[in-house]
Amino acid sequence: MNDPAVPLAIAGVSHHTANVMTLEGFRFADEAEFLAAARERFGGVILLQTCNRVEVIVEGDREALGEFLLGLGRKDFFIHDGSGALRHLFALASGIDSMIVGEDQIIGQLRTALGNAQEAVTASSLLETCLNKAIHVGIEVRRRTLINRGAVSVGSAAVQLAEAEIGTLAGRHILVVGSGEMGLLVAHALAAKHLTAMYVANRTYGRAVILANKIGGKAVRFAELYHYITLSDVVISCTSAPHPVIHRKELACAMKDRCWPTEGHPRPLILVDIAQPRDVEDGAGTVDGVRLFTIDDLRTVNEQTMGTRRAEAERAHGFVEAELAIFLRHLNRKTADDLLATLHTWAETVRVRERERAITRMGTVDAKTAGIVDDLTRVLTKKLLTDATFAIRSCAEEGDLAAAEALVKAITQGDRFPVTDSQE
What we know:
By secondary structure, this protein is of the alpha/beta class. It is 54% helix and 13% strand.
């Protein structure tokens, strides 16, 4: 099958080549504003922003998307288009392309991105079809393979990292900052660690209470954040705030209250920032006693937990390729239907015109005779178009849309059908 011209392009940055700072610089703080601006340039647009990727998905071509992002000051981004964009989208939903291979959160993140675009009226019919198919493929990959067997989320990877640094979390005091989806993942990962205390802080206290009640922790008010940092051995921060919520100056003051009486140095604090944009202010890692980790440090956790998921990822690749071929044929059939609608509308117009001419030449005719003429023209039109319909549909399904369009134009407009060297 030829590579069809699917009007889809995806551009962005991800954990493969971008560190935390690069991801942060590529993000679009005002998502609604970005979607509105992009909608002026493309048939549809969806923005996917997670802790380790920012991707722009459009109904359009790669050149226009590249120019658009460069005009917004973005650079060093990848671009996929056509079937390559679909392949990337399916692999992404399947967890193959994730930093934590096999993680399940990407399914919800894709649904959220699609929902945001639908709310902003920027999700075209094509994009909705492609995103929903990708989500379906992602769900099926997890059902048919073991790619998420033993897999960790970014949240639970942060917990593993903290445990590796501190030795054991048993008997420790842990503070989770943020009560959204990532905060819930972190809290659930911590629930089995036999902690002495788990605190949950959030700007909206009511949400902190809800999460704390779910995992048997204690909700704390955001105004008391640094007090509970003083009490904690590990702080994992994962809010959706557009700016830092843990500041160097205040952190330094909190660390002074952790000083050992005889040594004058504070007890070590493991601070893991998995938010995007970052929750922890630049320079906080230089505060005495603070050991700061970011998303970039989670890559090693993924490698340590791959195990059987590496082989399962290969199986997932095979399933993705098979589903991609099926979906491309589906898209091509839809294109064929649109072309055939044009052909049959033209043919019906000609049929009706010539039927009326024939009846007029016959003079006064009764209803039976008129019906016979009508049936005759219908049958002739259908039979004359049978082979053309088959040829057009076959070309489209094989991805040769140019030939399918040329056939329709040759029949309806009298255009010369292009002859290739192999046909001469």
